[in-house]
Write a structure and sequence with these properties.
The complex is a heterodimer of chains A (about 325) and B (about 260). Chain A has about 325 residues and is α/β, with parallel strands linked by helices. In chain A, helix 3 crosses helix 4 and helix 5 runs parallel beside helix 8. Chain A has 8 helices and 17 strands. The chains are: A alpha/beta (about 325), B alpha/beta (about 260). The complex binds flavin-adenine dinucleotide and adenosine monophosphate.
Chain lengths: ~325, ~260
């Protein structure tokens, strides 16, 4: 069976779930082979093995970092030269797309981004135009590179005993002198990223005041969810713009999307209507968000949300 | 400093977009078009850079003849001139063809820095800036939410999940900027009038030495197999809260039924 390369998305060896989603998918297409770049391989190895990686190509130590597109693309290239894969999967995150695009440009291959499905003939499915249209597309040139949207494939465990293949020193990249000189961490309460989370709880103008985002955050924490926001809430300065969901914000496709005090304007829906399950809390029974919600509560969010947080905490606890 | 900024013509964000059933490319003629919104931030950043370090700002756009309106729109914000690459053979180009064509034009223009938007609203693939840096064999700083130039070093803040990274490189280089990096200016009346007489150089594929077979639908690295409208979502159950928040229990039942709790 041909290899299918999966670029490991991780932070210091703490592997992101999308990696396991890609490994699970890769197993249905061929031999899943992980490509790991940067520090933390020891921490990551067990998880990769448990999710079916039959080999791990590793670029670790001096000169290897998973923070820049170039060493990542270089690692994928070196791994592809050895493994001759049928396809390369990267996460549809800014870093994953950057690495994949550089690889494809360098090799003269084709790449499809933001894919949500992939069949045995390597025909990929993408949601375009804000989720209004589904496109099936394929790569015509070279080895196909796919950027996979988080939450597209179920995670399946399939223990394997991967051989670790050291990629040696990174290749010479004379022209690329870019480097990361500092990393600034502003705490986010340890919540998942809105673009990748399995559950997203979003707040809108109905919250009436920035301090009321605490209600949304409490519900998100009870559910283990990320916090999103409508543009109205972001433009009012209530929540940082990297949390904005919609046409001019992030496109999310979580298992569960909870809209709190959001009317559901078309531009907002464009960023979340491919969510698997949608629930909404809004006091206006005619709010357009209800037309796409699997479960809607018509009511005052200030009454409903705290009770819901209590219920969730009680039932989970 | 010679500053180049790439701008793309896209369908209006509010417009209904559709694919042409014939060649399965985006039907760009049936809808209102605008300059890709993120590119306004790139143009603004280019102008601010020029105000700081001097030099000139050149706009680069690949798109059909009608994309000239987008070029003029960009020029009305203040750049000095533009290059418009158009050629019938470019219709249907994929992200990599586009980057290849832009890179060929950039080699002729010889800027010190290239600014791109982070993504286009129609494709939203974000592949062009990375592929472009690769074809140019230049450093590419992707996703700048702040940019500063310090001598020959360009430093950006790049957003991360938890904060930001500082990334730097020496030019010539490419930077893609995200929405919110600045507050794009509105073109003044004077700017709009001046844009009409600013120089726009037209390049064809022949000018760039690119074989038409390599680009457009013929040379695209990807192809659409088929497409269909997504079935509209159906509204599910709706409950009315009596006023005390007790409907939360029913919502919790629904979430438990779907194994979320
Ligand atoms: C080019 C363009 C791009 C855009 N991009 C985006 C985008 O990316 N993302 C985005 O979100 N928007 C975007 N918009 C804006 C969009 O059109 C809407 O204006 C915006 O989504 C509205 O946000 P909202 O639902 O929070 O506010 P509103 O529309 O004001 O809705 C607030 C809702 O809260 C409800 N509410 C009020 N009080 C309570 C209460 N006590 N309890 C329960 N419910 C209550 C109200 O009934 C109402 O439905 C864009 C617009 C344009 C023109
Ligand atoms: N046809 C084009 N002409 C000029 N610039 C483009 C073109 N296509 C993409 N770009 C640039 O690349 C950025 C990202 O676009 P995309 O990769 O299509 O999401 C845009 O914001 C533009 O700056």
């Amino acid at each position: 069976m041909p290899a299918v390369l999966v670029l490991v998305e991780h932070e210091g060896g703490n592997t992101k779930k999308v990696t396991y989603e890609m490994l699970s998918k890769a197993r249905s297409l061929g031999e899943p082979v992980a490509v790991f770049v940067g520090d933390g391989l020891d921490a990551a190895r067990d998880g990769l093995a448990r999710h079916g990686a039959t080999a791990v190509y590793a670029g670790t130590g001096e000169g290897w970092s998973n923070q820049l597109g170039e060493p990542l693309a270089g690692a994928l290239e070196a791994a592809a030269d050895r493994a001759q894969p049928a396809a390369v999967l990267v996460a549809s995150t800014p870093g994953g797309k950057d690495a994949g695009a550089r690889l494809a440009a360098r090799k003269g291959w084709g790449m499809l981004a933001d894919i949500v499905d992939l069949d045995g003939d390597l025909v990929a499915t993408q949601n375009v135009f804000g989720g209004a249209t589904t496109v099936r597309a394929r790569v015509r040139t070279g080895t196909p590179v796919f950027a996979v949207k988080p939450n597209s494939f179920p995670v399946e465990e399939a223990p394997a005993e991967p051989e670790v293949v050291d990629l040696g020193a990174p290749g010479e990249r004379g022209y690329d002198n870019s480097r990361v000189t500092d990393q600034v961490v502003q705490e986010q309460g340890g919540r998942p990223d809105v673009a990748e989370a399995e559950i997203v709880v979003s707040g809108g103008r109905g919250l009436q005041d920035p301090s009321n985002f605490a209600l949304v955050e409490a519900l998100a924490d009870a559910l283990g969810a990320a916090v999103g926001a409508s543009r109205a809430a972001v433009d009012a300065g209530w929540y940082p713009h990297q949390h904005q969901v919609g046409q001019t914000g992030k496109t999310v496709s979580p298992q569960l999307y909870v809209a709190v005090g959001i009317s559901g304007a078309i531009q907002h829906r464009a960023g979340m209507q491919t969510s698997k399950t949608i629930v909404a809390i809004n006091k206006d029974a005619d709010a357009p968000i209800f037309a796409i919600s699997d479960f809607g509560v018509v009511g005052d969010l200030f009454k409903v949300v705290p009770r819901l947080t209590e219920e969730v905490t009680r039932r989970r606890g | 400093m010679k500053i180049l900024v790439t701008v793309k013509r896209v369908p209006d964000t509010a417009a209904e977009k559709r694919l042409d059933p014939g060649d399965k490319t985006l039907d760009r003629e049936s809808v209102e078009t605008i300059m890709n919104p993120v590119d306004e931030y790139a143009v603004e950043e280019a102008l601010r850079l020029k105000e700081k370090v001097g030099g000139e700002v050149v706009v680069l756009c690949m798109g059909p003849a009608s994309a000239l309106a987008t070029v003029r729109k960009a020029l009305s914000m203040g750049p000095d001139g533009a290059v418009h690459v158009h050629d019938d053979a470019l219709h249907g180009s994929c992200a990599f063809n586009t980057a290849k064509v832009l890179s060929a034009a950039i080699r002729l223009i010889e800027p010190d820095i290239v600014l791109c938007g982070s993504e286009s609203t129609d494709a939203r693939t974000s592949l062009v800036p990375s592929a472009l840096a690769e074809y140019l064999r230049w450093p590419g700083l992707i996703g700048a939410k702040q940019l500063e130039v310090d001598g020959s070093t360009v430093r950006i803040q790049r957003e991360t999940e938890t904060g930001h990274d500082l990334v730097e490189a020496e030019g010539p280089l490419l930077v893609s900027v995200v929405k919110g990096i600045n507050e794009p200016r509105y073109p003044s009346f004077k700017g709009i009038m001046a844009a009409k007489s600013k120089p726009v150089t037209d390049y064809t594929l022949a000018d760039l030495g690119i074989d038409p077979g390599e680009v457009g639908t013929a040379g695209a690295t990807t192809e659409v197999v088929d497409f269909a409208p997504r079935p509209p979502r159906q509204a599910g159950q709706q409950v009315k809260d009596p006023g005390d928040g007790s409907a939360a229990a029913e919502l919790a039942d629904f979430l438990a039924g779907h194994k979320f709790i």
